[in-house]
Structure prediction request, 266 residues.
Amino acid sequence: MNTIDQIPIQAATKRAVAEDHGSTAVIAVQGLGKSFGNQRVLNGISLSVKRGETLAVLGRSGTGKSVLLRIIVGLEKPDSGSVLIHGQDIAGLELDQMGKIRKKMGFLFQHAALYDSLTVEQNVAFPLLHHQKELSKTQRYDRVRKLLAEVGMEDALAKMPSDISGGMQKRVGLARALALEPDILLLDEPTAGLDPISSGEIDDLVLKLQQEHHMASIVVTHDLHSAKTIADHVALLNEGDVVIQGNFEELQNCDIEFVREFLKHA
Prediction:
């Protein structure tokens, strides 16, 4: 049985927030193509995300979801098409120009990617040390404590990543992603490897942070339940193409065979 019908839509309250901030896309992907050798990963896809809105990118492994995020953040170059951030095409930007844009992006990696040799406090402080050097030690400490309090990890300042669970590491990763007050949040499989309870906690946390910070967010995920909880819209990829994009009602009502099969097995 398709369990998507049983999942309550919790992101609905965010839609009005997104609409209140106008229709200009913060992220606009236009005709994006990418190949690695003879393997075509993205086949001219187009997507857009407004402020206060979350787009979930769904699809099977190897469909280009993570590559899409890497292109948006400037870690990969597209073969064709463009990525506009606040209307600025990032293709061909000099490193210092791209660096300025990246400062406004928060990125949560699939495995949190915390530095094993640094404490939780030091991990969250890392972006501040490198990009907000004008902060005093006290200001930096206060900022880190506030960020960790936002994600429920204020008591873990002195702990090492190895001392906390995978779900807690994701929380710390989210705190670090928010350190520079980004207006774009990119999440790569935020609930991967977590048990259902921890996954639900991460979903609730992401939803809360989005409601508080009104970022333009893209989440790449295999987790349909998670996507429906935190996303306003979805895009389903298959073999480098966007099969469908829209809200969950449109996804459920779609008669494309691949969409039906994906929902049945998700």
Observations:
- The first strand starts at residue 25 and ends at 36.
